[in-house]
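Troubleshooting log. The previous structure file for this entry was overwritten by mistake, so regenerating from the original sequence record. Sequence copied from the archived sheet and checked twice against the printout by T.R.
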Amino acid sequence: MKKQLEGKVAIITGGASGFGEAMVHLFVSEGARVMIADLDTAKGQAVAAASGGDASFFRCDVSNRGDINGLVEACVARLGVPDIVVNNAGMTHENRPMLTIDEGTFDRVFAVNVKSIFHMTHAVLPLMRERKKGVILNVGSTAGIRPRPGLAWYNASKGAVNLLSKSMAIELGPDGIRVNAICPVIGDTGMTKKLMGVADTPENRAKFMASIPLGRYCRPSDVAAAALFLASDAAEFITGVEFPVDGGRTA
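Regenerated output below.
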């Protein structure tokens, strides 16, 4: 049976851990060659090594235009022109009242979550337009659909990602380029404690899970499976959607 991403080249930002790491492993298992971008060199190299040679690592601050340009150039040189780009790298601020979040934190959240997509689009779009094909997946969040209190600026950044994805889909459709947003609910990742805003105890986890009809947190494998589908030819007529991976949270 043909693998779903056979012969494809993908860039996955934030690929050293969490949702991104799960995407790397699944994409490689389905035939893709993957360029992993992350700030954590040790973890990124370890994920690349575990891929069995079908992934490569590039240290990258996604908020830096020079780093993004270098990432795309390295991808083309090592693996080929990217068919798929997953803008997965993200960050949050502590769950606190909005006026207690300082300007520097606000700027960093928007630089990593939103401006990074601006940089990546400038770097990869000319390549995709030349080939008249491509897939861009932006990892938004249910926070941009149904926000939780204490995360105002993070919610706003993910709302921007969600709407930006729709805007990109409309503009880039004539170029044969599909753009979708993947919107996970809270998951067991490195950002969980910040998103919760309370002690990470079984009791507090139960409160969060009570808002999810399927009764559990989002797993990295859930997001990876959604990304695989949206990146594959099976989704060739799907673009401009906010794709909730949320166990019914936003239903």
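The chain has a mean pLDDT of 94. Archived copy saved in two places this time.
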